[in-house]
Amino acid sequence: MLDRRSFILSVGTAALTNTSIAEAAPSATADTVAAPASGAPEALLTLTPKEAALLTALVDRLIPADDLSPSASQCGVVTYIDRQLAGAFGAGARLYLEGPFRPNAPAVFGYQSAMTPLQLVQAGAAELDDWSTAQRGKPIAALPAAELDPVLKDLEAGKITLGRVKATAFFEMLLQLTMEGFFADPIYGGNRDKAAWRMIGYPGLPATYAKAIRTHRGKRYEAEPKSIADFA
Amino acid sequence: MVQQLKPVDVVVVGLGWTGAIMARELTKAGLEVLAIERGPDRDAASSFALPSIRDELRYSIRQELMQDAKTDPVSFRHRPTDEALPIRRFGAFLPGDGVGGMGTHWNGNTFRFLPTDHRLKSHLTERYGAARIPDYMTIQDWDVSYDELEPHYAKFEAVCGVSGKAGNIRGAIQAGGNPFEGPRSGEYPNKPLTPSHANELFRKGAGDLGLHPFPAPASNSSAPYTNPEGAKLGGCQYCGHCDRFGCEADAKATPWSTLGPALTGEAKFRKLTQAYVSRVLYDKAAKRATGVRYIDVRSGETFDQPAEIVVLATWVFGNTRLLLNSGIGTPYDPKTGSGVVGKNYCYQIQPTCEVFFETEELNPFMGAGGLGMVVDDFNGDNFDHSNLNFFGGGYISLGSTNGRPINFRPTPPGTPRWGAKWKSETAKWYRRTASMLVEGTNYSSRANFLDLDPNYRNVFGDPLLRVTYNFTDNDRAMADWVLGKAAEIGRAMGATVVAPKPRKGDFNVTAYQSSHNSGGAIMGKSPADSVVNRYLQHWDAHNLFVVGASAFPQNAGYNPTAAAAALTYWAAQAIAGAYVKHPAPLVPA
Question: Is A105 exposed, middle or buried (0-12, 13-18, 19+ CB in 10 A)?
């Protein structure tokens, strides 16, 4: 059976070489990208299949599959990112977006881009794919996993120059969203089967420990983790 | 068109801790009070129900209960010669909004300041000589002593049902409490919270070093409690969702959980939410505030609300900006040192030290906002500074506040931020790590101040408040020294890895440090050195009171809520007692 990453990789490559493939079958591609481990189809709300393929490749290097947990995308992180970017966060909720802008200000000033998070991720993804095609001969989603780690390290260190997007701003947004999706309550689309919570031993809800803080002093507290959805 | 409203006795701007205290005390005194709050109405029953309140993404990461930076951020720069940039998303500090303000989503740490914190300049001058105080350090005395504030600290602690252990009752040192604290009139209203395992490791390690650990005083009720206002608080469930969250059990004391029931039943009290006060209406010739102008944030309509007394209770940034935008008082000029509005803006310096235990199970998700073990041996002037190159200090605490995994993912130094190694280290250490904090003093500096930004405006068209701030040489020397003491405690605890994290480089607006900002409308002895007198009454308008931590001339090494609240009770007593009978300056200028 083709694993998810290989499938997305092939779709992403095809989409690049023949855009009509992606355009002709957007729903099938979208369903496949966003499909949860259980198999129920989910739509992409705002990302294109090509963007989703790039993000899948990258987040699965940020959080790779191993015996501790499935990979980020297998845990729904790309679905999570898509939903966040499609919603208020992606549109710049709680983010002051009045100019003048100084996008190259030192990192201690935080977010200084003129773009909303959705615009930043979309522009960053397109510019990174352009860079990858020019420098590595292939788009990000078509690169072997071993070649992605150095790309991510260079993005993190600001050693790659993209176009309008500052490499470190794109990387920090990607890392933040990936960790959010992996560790947030599964109601947001990531952390499927509470895989991240199981990995670290976080019990989730209901979080009432008035007795346990005494009875489990110095002893591991173990419980089947529960999500908000388990109480709905 | 500005719509004119019927006059009221008192307008209170902002309904967090200080606004709620003022509203309660002044309605008790028979005055009609209108509280105007920019954010939404909130209380536990309607807003903080289980299970949805336990949502780290919504409340902690997306900051649902905080001031919305999109509509009204502040701008920031490190030096008076730099260009300021807007803090586009709040990070280092998180101003609140809505009924309860930051008091809704605080952790509940309820420390009194040291007696010497209230008269810092006099104390340091007496002990070390005036020549030891650096030229840039613009510290001054509060002009209100600890002894004068003591009953008001006690009153606030009773309102909050603070859980703790006294260390000094009327001069008698109490075993297990903080021996450095000022004399208290009595014990805390609630017993200390149940310590976590990590708290106990800290207590033993610090004790082995000859230090004096004590349980942090916490406005998280260790047992069900009814306060003197008749409000009922639940017992804390150690859920680990205090800071940034509301409490569904009302076990955390908040303005509305503690004073809301009494205010709700009070005919003389009204609250108006979703209303942004843009100006204090000021009659400069008469030296009198005549009311406030506000904008309905949903409709955009503008109203003038006349009042006999105006109380600004909008926290540090709002208080200072209202004065500047309303043209009340002289703005501070860092070049000449003249002017007072915006002067002595302070924060705190808070380095941390993580401790990793190969073999301990710490269950970090069991916690409460104020649950912690503390040593005060290296705070303020509790130790001799004769041979040190700094003043001040800070408490060192090991808090068990939460293990919420989006934000709490400790790994030892040198661990990558992502990838297979990051993952295995995260999985290994999540349950076995605790963090110590140095709550460092910040003594005011000539170059740190607040004014109006010339380039950026908020959604209402007002200039952003501009924050000019960086840590000083004194701050850095102090923080490094106290952090060294924290690392010693970590080693005494037997930690496998002790990882001190000093604050290096320019101030960083992105990573949360604390919301313990202060100053900008400071108190003092005369109009030349301060915005308000010792009763928080404005020198240039005797019916205008500016309350809260904006009045601190410098910041102590403690969470500031109790000091801000005690000072507000003190000011309310002066208004209700003396001022109402004789509306005039309470201190001659």
Answer: middle
- Per residue in B396-417, pLDDT (tens digit) is 999 999 999 999 999 999 999 9
pLDDT of residue B45: 80
∠ Cα B392 B398 B399 (to 5°): 110
Adjacent-strand bridge partners of B433: B356
DSSP string, chain A: ---HHHHHHHHHHHHHH-HHHHHHSHHHHHHHHH--TT------SS--HHHHHHHHHHHHHHS--BTTB--TGGGTHHHHHHHHHHSTTTTTTT----S---TTS-GGG----SS-HHHHHHHHHHHHHHHHHHHHSS-GGGS-HHHHHHHHHHHHTT-S--SSS-HHHHHHHHHHHHHHHHHS-GGGS-SGGGHHHHHHT--BS----TTHHHHTTTS------B-GGGG-
Closest CA to A62 of A185, A158, A155: A155
ipTM of the complex: 0.96
Smallest CA–CA distance, residue A40 to chain B, in Å, is 24
Q: Collect all residues of chain B within an 8 Å Cβ-Cβ radius of residue A175.
A: 417-418
Q: Mean pLDDT in runs of 10 for chain A (232 residues)?
A: 39 35 33 44 88 98 98 98 98 98 96 98 98 98 97 98 96 98 98 98 93 97 96 84
- Which token pair is B321? 């900006």
Per-residue pLDDT at A20: 34
Of B83, B405, B420, the CB nearest to A66: B420
H/E stretch holding B421 reads helix B419-429
- Nearest by CB: A184 against B196, B240, B406: B406
Distance from CA of A25 to the nearest CA of B (A): 33
Residue type, B274: Q
Q: Is the pLDDT of residue B46 over 90?
A: no
- Pairing assessment for the beta strands B168-169 and B172-173 based on DSSP bridges: antiparallel
* The one catalytic residue among B105, B152, B212, B516: B516
CA angle, corner B174, sides to B171 and B176, nearest 5? 150
Of the partner residues B240, B361, B456, the one whose CB lies closest to the CB of residue A219:
B361
Q: What is the pLDDT of residues B140-188, one digit of tens each?
A: 999 999 999 999 999 999 999 999 999 999 999 999 999 999 999 999 9
Residues 62-91 of B with CB under 8 A from A: 62-63, 66, 68-70, 73, 76, 83, 85-89, 91
Q: Which of residues 173-202 of A touch B (CB under 8 A)?
A: 175, 178-180, 183-185, 187-188, 196-197, 199-202
**Whole-number pLDDT of residue A42:** 67
Q: Is A189 left (phi over 0), alpha (psi -120 to 50) or beta?
A: left
| CA A172 vs CA A92, A97, A155, B417, B509: distances in Å | 16, 18, 9, 11, 15
Residue B38's CB: how many other CB atoms inside 10 A?
A: 26
Query: Tokens at residue B327, please?
Result: 């043209």
For residue range A104-138, list pLDDT tens digits in order.
999 999 999 999 999 999 999 999 999 999 999 99
